[in-house]
Design goal:
It is a single chain. By secondary structure, the chain is mainly α. The chain has one domain. Helices cover 68% and strands 0% of the residues. The protein has 15 helices and no strands. Helix 13 packs parallel to helix 15. The longest helix is centred in the middle third of the chain and has 20 residues. It starts with 13 loop residues before the first helix and ends with a helix.
Length: 271
């Protein structure tokens, strides 16, 4: 999985940027979502994207999809598994399935098949989408026997290279499934994985997630602090306002400072 930016400019991988964009889908289409997408667009405008496919995919992710796309989720799933579908069509279909508010056996089956693709971008986007679909299932009040996270957990335990492990951690982050917390916690101790793991805690419904995030937001390495502070954007303002104020008073790393400002702006909008 290729790095989409040079390390000296912004330490975000493709999976991390995509996960950030995908998270915005869960904010809906109100003022907070508009503000968040505008901030992400500003960040992408200043990145050196050296892959046209990645750039196109990220452009797709920051654009809210029409409301009627959710009703066509099965049609999108068919586009992924069609033997005549191009890799580009599969990439766009996987991105679309991440943003729709519908998950069922058809969409998850299609994404699971695409996650085994020989195309690394299709594989990456489909795996991230499986995490997001798991979150849709959980918010719907019942998975109907579907459990994509169980499969992702098994795949993560078998993964040996850093890029694959980052990809699965980003998918865990999209899911918000508390079963992924032990893996995210452990990954915080690995410098190469810690930024992805920190941002992956953003939806985890557990006080422990806030404790872990607040610790690394104040004491972690600069890229980890920035990732934890980006995660704060999605957490409860009541638990985070004092931490953000403390971080704002002493933070000097520009990406972390940007994340603090974005989170504070969102908290102010939320009242």
């Amino acid at each position: 999985m290729a790095e989409v930016v040079k390390p000296q400019t912004q330490p975000l991988t493709t999976a991390e940027i995509a996960a950030l964009a995908l998270s915005l889908a869960h904010l809906g289409s109100g003022p907070q979502a508009v503000t968040a997408r505008r901030g992400l667009q500003h960040a992408l405008d200043h990145l050196d994207l050296d892959d046209d496919v990645i750039a196109t995919t990220l452009d797709t992710l920051i654009e809210p999809l029409p409301a009627d796309v959710a009703a066509r989720a099965r049609l999108i799933a068919d586009a992924i598994t069609s033997p005549t579908a191009t890799a580009e069509a599969q990439r766009q279909a996987a991105a679309s399935l991440t943003l729709v508010g519908q998950a069922d056996a058809t969409t998850i089956g299609a994404l699971q098949e695409a996650s085994r693709s020989d195309d690394p971008t299709v594989r990456n986007m489909s795996t991230l989408a499986l995490g997001a679909q798991a979150r849709v299932l959980g918010e719907g009040g019942g998975a109907g026997g579907l459990d994509p996270i169980a499969d992702l957990l098994r795949e993560y335990e078998r993964a040996s290279d850093l890029d694959s492990r980052r990809m699965f951690l980003a998918a865990f982050g999209n899911s918000g499934d508390v079963r992924t917390l032990p893996h995210l916690r452990a990954a915080l101790a690995e410098p190469a994985l810690a930024p992805t793991a920190a941002f992956g805690l953003r939806f985890i419904p557990s006080p422990e997630a806030d404790v872990l995030l607040q610790q690394v937001a104040l004491e972690g390495a600069p890229p980890v602090r920035a990732a934890a502070l980006r995660a704060a954007f999605f957490r409860d303002p009541g638990a985070w306002m004092p931490v953000l104020q403390l971080a704002a008073a002493r933070e000097t790393y520009p990406p972390a400072m940007d994340a603090i400002r974005a989170a504070l702006a969102r908290y102010e909008e939320a009242g």
